[in-house]
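User: I'll paste a sequence; please echo it back and then give the predicted structure.

Assistant: Echoing your sequence first, then the prediction.
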Amino acid sequence: MTALARYLRSSTFRLAVVYLLLFEGSVCVVLGFVYWTTAMHLEMEADAAIERELGSLTARYRGRGLASFSRVLEDRVARSPRGPFIYLFATAGRRALGGNVSGWPDAMPDPEGWLEFPLWTAREPDDTPHLARARVSALPGGLLLLVGRDMHEIDRACSRIRLALAWSLGLMLVLGVAGALAMTRGTMRRIDSINRASREIMRGDLARRIPTRGTRDDFDQLADQLNAMLDRIQELMDGIRRVTDDIAHDLKTPLTRLRTRLEELRDTGGLGGGSAESVEAAIGESDRLLATFAALLRIARVESKATREGFTIVDLAALARDAAELYEPYGQERGREVAFFGGAAGLLANGDRDLLFQAVSNLVDNALRHGRGRVVVETDTVPAPGGGGERRARIVVRDEGPGIPEADRERVFRRFVRLEASRNTAGNGLGLALVEAVATVHGGTVDLAENDASRGGPGLKVTMLLPAG
């Protein structure tokens, strides 16, 4: 397919042509109205000039008599024998007595008293008749006076206006089509760049991005959104690859232990003595595997939520208080206090209550497992980043433990990542990954920071920001 054929078949060109035709139609209406008003004005001016001339000559005849009238009429004919004005002084029988035409025109007046008739002059080489327009006045003594005007110059002016309008519309159409082709060419070049990038991405180059021009136009905004989507897809694909590697390494040891202990159970030939302990150990290892796979499935289900179907208005303050109360007995067993401070009663957000409760519970559980001292759960609202008067709901879980080094705060959100200080505690390294997935699907963020000194620091402060409902 040639480039011109592609342009003509593109939606951009078709849309441009539709707007061009609409514009041409609008211009035709406007220019037609301008032409009509101009032609009407010229005709009205000609009629007014005829009326004035006829009135002047009639007044001369009535005021000063036939002799004075004849001199004035002869003078005007002598000054412009071939001028635009037509004079004919005649008897009641329409026999010419003076003027610049040879005989009375063969025409009937219209209801308003105007005569229109062809006029032959020697000015045109082809002896083409002109349209003349005149009016008749009856003079005392049974005489008639006809005063008119040759409309040739007015007709010529109107013809020139029509020709200029036709050329203008034609030129406008040509320029409009050329502009539509130029606009289509620019649009097709942008679309081709998107298509090229898409083809390279489909071939496996996930790092490829759609180019932008920095103009912040519609195409740049679309490219930015598509690039953000591609960044997210690449992040998910990298996460899947990391999970595959991590599963291969992290689950190898418990699976080996399970196989060894099951072999010991088989070799003992019964369930007495150490065999019972081996069975219990195998069950424990199986529980770890099941818990790990269950956590992975929960994260996958959270990340697969493409819509907000099933979201309801959730009271975050009540939800956080319930999570704190749920872990109070567990904290007491470990000699730890779990406290809740609701800074914003009735703190509402649009979301999935079960997922949000799971996320807050994971944060409290992590604080009890890996932190020290008192665990505090707080809720309040803060201004949204970027201003605009919007607010964000904030859920904070803080402890008084060793915290997380700043260099590791991004890494701990990856699946199966566990810091060296936590290797000896139960867990699978999926808690914070689930929290981040829940926050993301709700349009929020999770941030790790050092606990404030005024709040019993050192320690870890985990902040979840969600759009307030």
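The domain at 312-467 is CATH 3.30.565.10 (Heat Shock Protein 90). The chain has three domains: 11-156, 251-303, 312-467.
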